[in-house]
Amino acid sequence: MKIEINVDDKTINIYRAIIIFLSIIIFGYFFKLNGFTPYWNDEFYYSFISGGDTKLGSIYDIIRSQHYLYFNWTGRILIHGIVQIFLLVGKDYFNIFNSIFLLLLIYLVCSFVRVRKFNNKEDLRDFIIVTLLLWFLMPVMGQTTFWLAGSINYLWSTVFVLVFLLPYRYLLEDKYIIKNNIASAVIMFFLGLLAGWSQENAAVTAVVFVGTAFIFIIYKYKKVPYWFISGSAGLIIGAVFLLLAPGNGVRKEKMYFDLSLKDQIQGFIQSMNYIMLHEQLFLFILFLVMFIFVLFIKSELKIKSIGLALLLFLSGFTSYLAMIASPEFPTRATFIGAIFIIISLMILSTHLNQKFLVAIMIVAIIPFFLSVTNLYNDMQTVGHENAQREKVVAESIENGNYDVRLPEYSVKGSDRVFIFDITMNPKYTSNEHFAKFYGLDSVVIDTPVLVVELKEPVINQYQLYYDTGKGYNETDTSYAGIYNQTDGKRIYFKLPNKPIYRFRFDPGIHANEKIGILKITIQNKNIIKNYDGAQLQEMLIPQHDIYSVTNKVDYLELITGGSDPQLEFVNDYTDKGTSVTIDFADKLSEEIQIFYDLGKGFNENNSVKIEMNDDNKLVAHLPAKNIHDLRIDLGNKQGVSIGIKTINIEAAKTIEIKDIFGKASSLIQLEKSQVKGDIDYFITKGNDPSFQINDLESILASE
Description:
This protein is α+β, with helices and mostly antiparallel strands. InterPro entries: DUF6056 (IPR045691).
C-alpha cells in the first residue's frame, strides 16, 4: 500500500519521505560519532609512508606504501590504500563517507530480501527492523563502524561484497537487475576484483556464495550470463592476489610465535566457543529458532526462502571457519559473516506474522533509544578527553618535554566503544606510533603500575589481584596478556592510586608451564621499587597449582602444577603487614586458612589460604599490622593429631604455644592431648577445627 500527498501538483510518497527522513537522522548521528572517534594505533602508523619515518604527502606516497605493505605486511592494499587516502585528505571527509557507507549497508540488507523502491509500508517496516537488527547484532560496532581503519576494513569491504553479489542473488530467482551486455560484464569484473581483493573473510564469503550460485544456476537454467563469468573471474583474481600476498607470511613470522597446528586449532576452537556461546549467542539462537519455525509452517514459498537463507547463512559462517588458518581470531573478523546471517534472518522473517514483527519492533525501540543515547554520551566524552590530551601534548612540546604522561580515558572500552589506547608500556606498538605521530620521545598512561619482566615471552593470560583492605575480589584485579611477538616480555598491570597491602599474581592458565621471572617493578610516578630473582624467592609464596619455585642464576623459575596457578606476596611498597610462621611437628597435607580481625570480626575477605602439600612449615603474610585477633583453621578432618612446635609472629620474638593457651587463646573443635618436649599435640574434634589468638596487638606489645 502506498500513501501519497499532492502538494503543488507534485505527488509525495509519505513512506519514502519517512525513510529519507530517518536516513538523514541516521546519517547525522553516525557522522557525529565518527567525529568523536580519535585516531588510534593504525591511523598513527598509516599516516607515514610504510616502512619509513616520513609522513604521507601525496598519492605517490600512498602507492609506495602499498607496494611495501604488499611484500612486507598484508595483501589488503586496496583497502589500506583507501585508509591512507583519508589520512592524507583529512578525517572530516572520512566522517562523511563512512556515514554514507553505514546507510548503504542498511539499504543493501533490505534489498537482499526483495527488490525494493522504498516507497511502501513494508519497505518502511523492514528499514526500521534492519536498522534495529544491525544495531543490536553487528559484532563489535566500535571497531567495525566508527574506527577509521577498522570500518574501511570491515564495513566498507562488506558493502563492496554486497553490491557485487546483489545481481547474483536475484539471478537465483531468474531475475536480471542488470543487463547482460559488455558494459555490465566490465563493471562486474571490477566489482568482483574489488570484492575479492578487499578483506580475507569478505573474499571467502563472496567466493562461497558465487560458487554455490554457479552450481545451482547451471543445474536449473543450463547457462549463465556474461557478467556472471566476468564478475567471478574478477573475484577469483582479487582473492588470489589478496590471499597469496608475500606480506601475509612476513607478518605472520614477525608478529606471531611459532604455533604448532594443534595449538592453532585449539586457539581457533576456543575463539569459536567464546564467539558463538557468548558474544553472538543471541544471533545464532535467533537464526535457529526462526529457521525451525519456518521449516514447519505450511507455505508454498517457504522452500525458496529456506534455500536462500541457508545459502546466506552458510556463506557467512564459512568466513568464521576460514579463521582456522589464522594465528588469531578477533571478533571483528566475523563482521561480514554476521551481516549475512542477519540477511538470512530478514528473509526468514517474511514468513512471520507481520503484526508480530511490528510488535517486536515497537518493544525494541525503547532499549534502542537508551543505547543510542548512552553511546552518544560515551563517544562525546572520548572526543572531549582526546582534545584535552592533544592540548597536553602540545603544551609539553612547547615546554621542551618530549616524554609525556597522559591521563587514561574515563570511558571504558566495549563492543560499541572502541579504545585502542596507549598503554603503561612505552615500548608497546600503540605508544611508539603515538609518539612518532606527535614527535615525542615517549608516551605512557599516567597511572601506578606493576611490571613483571619475564626471561622469555610466554603466550598466556596473566592476572594480578591487589588487596586494598577488602581481600581479593574480581573488582580489584588487573589483566594482561602476551599474545604475539609485539607484546614483548614485560607484563604491565595497572594499579589503583591507593594503598595496597598484598598481591596475588596468577601466572597464566596452563598447567606444566615453565615461566622465568627476571624482576618485578612497582612504579608510581618517580617512586620505583625493583625486586630481582633472589628477592622474589623470599617474597613470592606459592598458594595454588605451583609445582616449584627455583632461584636460577639471574631469574626465578616457576613451574605451574595446574590451570589456576597462584603466587602471593605482601607489598612492602605500601605496608609490610604481619607475617605468621607455624612450625608443625609432622608434615601436613591440609588447606590451612588464617583469618585476621581488623575490627569488624572474622570474614572471608580478611583471610588467606595456604595449601600444605606434605609440608611441616606454614608461612603466611597478612596485609595489615593492626590485627586484633587471629583464627587459624586446621583443615576439615576429625580425629587428626596435630603437633605444633612454635608460632612466630613478625615484629615479636617466638611465642610458644604453652605461653599462649589459657591466657589469650581459645580452642574450637580442638582438644589439647599431650605435651612432648617443646611440642604441643592436639586432636581435632570436628570438621572445622581451629584455634584463636585474641588481642594480638597487646600480646605483641607485651612481648
